[in-house]
What does this fold into?
Amino acid sequence: MQEIPLISVIIPCYNQAHFLAQAIDSVLAQTYSHFEIIVINDGSPDNIQEVMLPYLSDPRIILHNQANQGLSNARNTGIKLAQGQFFQFLDSDDWITPSKFDLQVNQLLADPSAAFSYCNFFYYYEDTDQLEEMPGEKIAFFEEDPLTAFWTHSIFPPASIVIRREWVERTGEFRAGLPVAEDYDYWLRAVALGARARYLDVPLAFYRRHSQNLTTTTKGTNLEDTFIKIRAYFVKEFPQEAARASFLAFNRLNQTIHKLEWELKGVTEELVSAKGQIAQKEADLESLQLAYEQLNADSKYHYEQLESYLEQQEKKFKGVEEYALSLKNELDKVEEYALSLRVELDKVEEYALSLRKELDKQES
It folds into this structure.
């Protein structure tokens, strides 16, 4: 039965005991259980002993105390103490997902030619409690040509990488005396020696951004000077690899520039075409505006004509209404006169009837 490889997790800690428990707990939560945790107390003045006390009963966890010697020397101490076939360098303020070791160790076991596996990761912003995933396309190409990629980029936090022991031994110790980017210097030397990388497009690590990050506290000229110093060391120690990396990086930059020039040319042509279309639309809009103004003027004229006609008709209707009222008055008078004639006629009929009666009496 094949032996399950041991992973040595090296966690240097200086003045970050308040983050340490989360880093350790993320390792203890791994689905891959064959690991050891080596915590290097690099002369930390905070309560690291108190934080570590509950963990020391676990035989997989080692606490090594030393006088403050800096991050590189703390990692180097961890390397000397480590027993594993694979190494995970984990800063005390970062943490990892439970499936990280399973996925990356299996990837390396499936490809013996690969020196290390690197995965995608999240930025965690301490001040806003926000997560941001590193876009995969920004780091996937490291797998194709790691030397050129590392020569021109410094992206990975140590937490994203699991590396074989043989390549740690071949690369040697972390360079002491660098205030920042000592891990960049380390990976650059490893790939110069021929280390092949395999990419795992899954975010399995969390890189905490906060006010005490070395890359945050080391700013401006000091940060630039450190990267210049790292490249100067590299040119001195690996002159051919540095020349190759510079040449390939220049070619890649040149290809990128040409690609951008073609894209810019296409965009320029599109802008010219769009400008012509805009001019045509403006002309069409101006024509529509003139047509609208003419239509508005015609509508106003016809409205005024209709309004005048309605006024005239209203006057005529008023005259007809007055004439009809006078006719009604005349008709009322005629009806009164007819009524009076009827009364007179009734009287005449009564008188005639009385005369008839008188005449009948005389005849009898």
Residues 105 and 162 are 8 Å apart (CA to CA). The mean pLDDT is 88. The chain has two domains: 7-237, 240-337.
